[in-house]
Amino acid sequence: MAMKIRLARGGSKKRPFYRIVAADSRMPRDGRFLEKLGTYNPLLPKDSEERVKMDVERIQYWLGQGAQATDRVARMLEAAGVVAKTERSNPEKAVPGKKAQERAKEKADKAAAAADAGEE
């Protein structure tokens, strides 16, 4: 059974509230889960202690049983110091598109031409 530690959404429309749960990966996002491990309230300020509450012992138990944390939950666990930080690198994300690169090249050419004209 493929286990995931993930978020299950609750709350009303435009007022999200999440439970951190251990669930079978084949179950629906808000469906059946095995155990509630904590809560996450994104409406609270980032420095609030009430924003993320986790039962760290049970999360470590499930990780020991082979459960995989989703990306968002893994970031919360890293912030809490439960798991080691992983290096996330997507260098292609920072590279501008073709048209933006062409515009930047044209702008650089114009600036170089203006600098040459100004020196003479």
UniProtKB/TrEMBL annotation:
Origin: domain of life: Bacteria
Keywords: Ribonucleoprotein, Ribosomal protein
Name of this protein: Small ribosomal subunit protein bS16
Region of interest called Disordered, as start-end residue ranges on this chain: 84-120
Listed Basic and acidic residues bias regions: 99-110
InterPro entries membership: Ribosomal_bS16, Ribosomal_bS16_dom_sf
A Pfam cross-reference name: Ribosomal_S16
Family as reported in the entry's similarity comment: Belongs to the bacterial ribosomal protein bS16 family.
Recorded name of the encoding gene: rpsP
UniProt feature, compositional bias: Low complexity: 111-120
Gene Ontology CC annotations of this record: ribosome
